[in-house]
TrEMBL record:
Residues 103-134 are annotated as: Disordered. GO terms for molecular function: 7S RNA binding. Component of a signal recognition particle complex that consists of a 7SL RNA molecule of 300 nucleotides and six protein subunits: SRP72, SRP68, SRP54, SRP19, SRP14 and SRP9. It holds the Pfam family SRP19. Keywords: Cytoplasm, Nucleus, Ribonucleoprotein, RNA-binding, Signal recognition particle. Belongs to the SRP19 family. PANTHER family: SIGNAL RECOGNITION PARTICLE 19 KD PROTEIN (PTHR17453), SIGNAL RECOGNITION PARTICLE 19 KDA PROTEIN (PTHR17453:SF0). It comes from the Eukaryota. GO terms for biological process: SRP-dependent cotranslational protein targeting to membrane, signal sequence recognition. This is Signal recognition particle 19 kDa protein. It comes from Nelumbo nucifera (Sacred lotus). Its main location: cytoplasm. It is found in: Cytoplasm; Nucleus, Nucleolus. Signal peptide: none annotated.
Amino acid sequence: MDGGLSNVKKWVVLYPVYINSKKTIAEGRRISTSKACENPTCAEISDCCNYLKVPCVIEIDKAYPRDFMQRGRVRVLLKKEDGTLYNPAIPSRKQLMLHVAELVPKHHGRTKKQEPATSTAGPSKSGKGGKKKK
């Protein structure tokens, strides 16, 4: 995926937490909840960046400092060496986050996962819960 591009350390970092609608701003979300998506993964973000024709690299061994249990981040290159944008629709990190958050719910792996989950569920328990009086 690197394509021979040099100095990946200077690329923009995009953690999945930045676009996760389940997280609060204090936990690291950077866009509004209405525009964010639910529990994105690095692979989904990478696929969206490839779809947007923006070079990216997944770093599996890295973790977000505020949530170090969730591993992985994506490095993205927004501008070429001469300063021109790879995708004119994405001039900044914020625009990248908004575009990726819009595309992740449409990701092919996500749409396949959700179909079986919407199938009919088993019979539900009815009645009151708690202790019974004697």
